[in-house]
Amino acid sequence: MTARTRLVLLFTLVLLLVVLPTLARWYTEYLWFVELGYPRVFWVPALSRALLFAFTASVVFALLYPNLRLALASLPAPSVVEIRLDGARVQRRPRVQRWLFVGTLAVAALAGAASTDRWVAFQQFLHAVPAGERDPVFGLDVSFYLFRLPFLRFLEEVVWGWGVVAFLGALVLYALAGGARAWRLWSRPRVHLSVMAGLLLLVRAAGFRLDAYELLTSQRGLVFGITYADAHARLPALNILAVLALGCAGLLFANAWLRTLRLAVGIVVFAAAAWVVGVGLLPTVVQQLVVAPAELSRETPYLRMHIESTLRAYGLHRVKNVPFEPTERLDAGALERHRNTLENVRLWDYRPLLETYRQLQSLRAYYVFSDVDIDRYRIAGRQQQLMLAARELDLDRLPPQARTWVNRHLVYTHGYGVVASPVHRVSEEGLPELWLKDIPPRAEVPELRVDRPEIYFGELTRDYAIVGTRIQEFDYPRGDENVTTRYRGEAGVPLGGWLRRLAFALRFGEPRILLSTDLTPASRILFHRAIPDRVRRLAPFLRYDRDPYVVVSEGRLFWIVDAYTVSDRYPYAQPAGSFNYIRNAVKAVVDAYHGTVRFYVSDPTDPVVGVYQRMFPGLFRPLAELPPPLAAHLRYPVDLFAVQAEVYATYHMRDPRVFYNREDVWAVAQEVFADRPQPVEPYYVTLRLPEAAAPEEEFVLILPMTPQRRDNMVAWLAARNDLPFLGELQVFQFPKDRVIFGPMQVESRINQDPLISQQLTLWNQQGSRVIRGNLIVLPVGRSLLYVEPIFLQAERSQLPELRRVVVAHGPRVAMAPTLDEALRQVVRASPSAAPSRPAGRPELLEEALRRYRRAQALLRQGDLAGFQRELDALGRLLEQLAAPSPRP
Length: 888
Prior knowledge:
888 residues; alpha+beta
């Protein structure tokens, strides 16, 4: 095989294995962005990467090649002597400059490729908007640190780093050319290296100034940001070094016309010594001799700035503090007044409920439920919390013989339907009461009807699907037969034409996309169907919540994903992992059938999302454009709330002295789940917040807090979810002169109750496993209720059953088959409880008759939920009528 043949073969292999698949991926990605209606979102990152590549490669090449070539010219021209067979001697000179050009070009290309991941910083630099806040030290707008400083630092690092490489390379070449003695006398090396060193010092002068700004976004002492030692030693030293570097650069430029190196060497030694003393030694001396003996008094101003900036960075500066003293004792009247709150107590823990859904509603082996979401719906005019799970298709659960390409991509294309149950309803068998179930979906209440149950886009739809083919799609099973369908939605990239089919065949490594006769000119391919992947590919610069949740709205299914804008450059703010600034600024909504993706700005005051809006016009929409039926299902995300709670546990101490001594650090309360202690997860409840302006109960995310290393409760955090209060944060603080039981203390009381402990022990010994669900701390008016569900699961069964509910209130603990019964036991046992029977029996009889008539009317209307509610109320009235009259 000749050299030319080998070269042609190598070129062909590279073309087939690298170039064509890469071009196919780019082309198909572009088609996907066009199909979703966001071509600009494809071009902005692509062009930004190309510009960064070209710019960085040009800078690196301009720094390396001219300087190394100039130094290379001082070397004697190398030659190679070749002796031929006839005795002739031929002297050849290798083309060193050509190899230098090629090598430098390759290095520049690699450096340019490495810089392309800075495209977001580049675009933020170009489209920066004011943040409306100024840092407390330099007085600059915070947007400088968020959007300008990162890219300026990148530029300085590129020029300085590769400039140093070029300087050292030239220095080595000059040393090889004539030795140290001869090099001193050469005018060209002296001029060249002096000018290079002077230019490098100019760059370093700018770098010292950037170092000063970065003191606000780094930690070297007590807090994140500038401390006393930084302000009085390191910052002045950096300013002096910047001026000194400018002066040294001027002297080096002058050195180009002098015939000595002493001045240049002296300058370098002096600058290095100044850097070591000013940046390294002096701040340490100040810290040990000045700060350490009186650290609190010295650092107080900086602690105050650090606390305030951290609260602002996490959106905690707007937290409303509300004193909360649980002085009220619940009685029957209080239970009735807060009936809507009590009917929304989440008895079903999502982990046992997920197993129950899988056992009861999977219906076929290839259907799975991956997650259970909690949301609220307006049912018969009242807000009701529901647990929901999407029934998705897992292709790996198909029988092995059925996992053909046609089945995986043309036939089994979508999941089907949603299961929903109220958070507090339990059947006689200890199972959830399903209000939305089965295939086709059957809704027990009209608000949950589903007219379009197909899930073409979900959490588990990872494979591509091709629709509009000659093969009917599987829709859902019906007895021994399967119902088929054809996709009528708007999603998918058309596959008409051989070029597109070839591109997708190369992208997915599947020649059948090109060769299959089942595909038609009307066929379309659906890919990037998994919800997390779909939104992340559209907006990779956002950070996404771990829990997309499904919503039933006007007969259709949607996914809502909370998205965050983050940064690690907010001045003076303490980092929480990889960021020190976060906002839930965007809500992403994905249609489960049509695949459309819409991003809505939920926090227009966030400067980061303001920059993204300028970068991508048309990608983000105002929240007011979100349809009201979907806006009613927006909620405050658990992930963000957990981060804020972690930060607020320390930074609620706004007094620098208290903060310094860590006198009042909080922690997330602990609970017992399945016999293991764990931190309480934030949970959603329906309640009327104390001192809230809302006239009725609202959907609230809460989390109980305890003092660090103690179990009594000190406060509970709340985030409001209903518009127009979405995102408002409140902290309800308990009085410090009395003990309020925390979840772990209530868990201990449950364990110490002889009747409850005996019953749980007995169940655990009878072939069953007791699962203690989440302990819910529920503020009810000015009192606290603690509710814990008890699940039983047989050793050979995967079906947990909710068998008991434990309620604690005040000094009383009760366990009963239902929440209502446990509440009645606690209220009757309470010594301060009012009589459960109203004073007037005629009024009770009149109310009972009214409830009965209302229940009959709701039953005729088909409102089973309302009928059950009125029937429950009627039962409570009859129990009060049956209670014995108090003796005179």
